[in-house]
């Protein structure tokens, strides 16, 4: 657990972000057993009565005090508006990577400060580690559930306060403890949603069709890399790199082609073979590092992750900060697959998240 309980006075307060699901419930139980005094807060991101009721029911079963924070307007302004604007601009956003630093962890810290509580906790499958005086988020023990990728932009001052009781456990182990040790059988068996919270069970593409302006959802041309028209699409915001479905090609033999890029100005989707999806160069904006000197000095040992899971390049890179505040990244041993502007690019040194930035553009050699 980040900030080990051995270094904390027995009975210290900790504010836990409680969603009502099994992970955050387990965090409350594990922290209490470790000697902390948990208090819970539910962030009502969607103004959802059912979500509020679930959080309240879980808090009651855990016998923990619950504070409900209405924040649907803030979530809409900070996350949903940006999410839709990115798609309109032909980008591929990662709303969870934006929500964690700007909403969840920020609100958790703000609420804890008002309550006079130092320690913060969540049910993330991630660890917090100290290295040479700095605090980092680090990969969790369960590679299938690790969520460190989405925390790259959470400020170090917040990471320093974080307690993460699930970081050293697998999801299976958490379920087992809830069932066998704490007798929370129903909670342990509860299925979790793997989609974005604001979809509320809807398909991603259906959400976009409902909320994007009609003028950007007009059918258009699918073209190859030379600009030849070879098919039709349903609206460029519905496509991202690597996608092979959702558009029609005139030649059935071209079925293996995938989206390489989109052209919002011309309402075009560009497709190509799998080889066209690999890139060695990236330009990042809004980048930062926990320890800039270590980050830039360790470029040859960094691992780059461009999505939480999936194909990611092996080996190191060269990093070149520009006078415009951007960061040029050149991969030295491998190539990244299916890059799109708007994606977070996260840098790991072994298991530590040491920096990150937003993919601004992909230079084409």
- What number is the mean pLDDT? 94
Enumerate the strands of the largest sheet in spatial order, edge to edge or round the barrel: 15-19-20-14-17-16
Structural class by SSE content: alpha/beta
In terms of quaternary structure, the protein is single chain
Give Rg in angstroms.
Answer: 22 Å
Largest sheet: 6 strands, antiparallel
Note the main attributes of this structure:
single chain, 365 residues, alpha/beta, 6-stranded antiparallel beta sheet, 5-stranded parallel beta sheet, 27% strand, globular
Summarize the structure.
The chain is α/β, with parallel strands linked by helices and 365 residues long.
Structure commentary:
With 365 residues, this protein is an alpha/beta fold. The protein contains nine helices and 20 strands. The chain has helices at 22-33, 49-62, 72-88, 95-115, 156-159, 171-180, 185-189, 204-211, 292-297; strands at residues 13-17, 37-44, 66-70, 119-121, 126-131, 134-139, 162-163, 220-223, 229-233, 248-249, 258-263, 268-272, 278-279, 281-289, 303-305, 317-321, 327-331, 336-337, 344-349, 352-361. Strands 15-19-20-14-17-16 form a six-stranded antiparallel beta sheet. A five-stranded parallel beta sheet has the order 3-2-1-4-7, with helices on both faces. Helix 2 (49-62) links the parallel strand 2 (37-44) and strand 3. Helix 3 runs antiparallel to helix 4. The longest helix is centred in the N-terminal third of the chain and has 21 residues, at 95-115. The N and C termini lie far apart (45 Å). The model has no long low-confidence stretch (mean pLDDT 94).
């Amino acid at each position: 657990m980040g900030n080990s309980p051995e270094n904390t006075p027995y009975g210290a307060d900790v504010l836990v972000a409680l969603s009502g699901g099994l992970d955050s419930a387990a965090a409350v139980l594990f922290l209490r057993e470790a000697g902390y005094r948990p208090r819970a807060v539910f962030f009502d991101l969607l103004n959802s009565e059912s979500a509020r009721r679930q959080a309240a029911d879980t808090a009651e079963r855990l016998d923990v005090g619950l504070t409900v924070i209405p924040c649907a307007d803030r979530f809409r302004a900070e996350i949903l508006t940006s999410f839709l604007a990115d798609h309109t601009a032909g980008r591929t956003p990662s709303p969870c990577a934006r929500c964690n630093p700007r909403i969840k962890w920020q609100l958790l810290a703000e609420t804890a400060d008002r309550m006079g509580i130092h320690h913060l906790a969540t049910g993330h499958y991630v660890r917090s580690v100290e290295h040479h005086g700095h605090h980092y988020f680090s990969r969790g023990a369960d590679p299938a559930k690790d969520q460190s990728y989405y925390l790259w932009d959470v400020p170090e001052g917040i990471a320093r306060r974080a307690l993460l009781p699930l970081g050293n456990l697998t999801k299976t182990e958490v379920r087992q403890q809830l069932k066998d040790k704490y007798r929370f059988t129903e909670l342990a068996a509860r299925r979790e949603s793997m989609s974005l919270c604001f979809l509320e069970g809807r398909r991603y593409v259906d959400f976009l069709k409902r909320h994007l302006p009609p003028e950007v959802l007009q059918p258009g041309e699918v073209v190859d890399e030379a600009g030849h028209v070879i098919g039709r699409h349903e609206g460029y915001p519905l496509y991202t790199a690597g996608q092979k479905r959702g558009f029609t090609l005139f030649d059935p033999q071209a079925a293996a082609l995938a989206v390489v890029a989109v052209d919002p100005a011309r309402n075009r989707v560009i497709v190509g073979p799998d080889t066209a999806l690999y890139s060695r160069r990236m330009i990042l904006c809004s980048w930062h590092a926990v320890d800039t000197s270590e980050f830039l000095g360790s470029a040859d040992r960094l691992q780059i992750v461009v999505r939480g899971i999936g194909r990611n390049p092996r080996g190191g890179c060269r990093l070149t900060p520009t006078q415009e505040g951007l960061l040029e990244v050149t991969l030295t041993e491998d190539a990244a697959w299916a890059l799109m502007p708007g994606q977070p690019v996260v840098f790991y040194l072994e298991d530590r998240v040491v920096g990150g930035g937003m993919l601004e553009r992909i230079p084409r050699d």
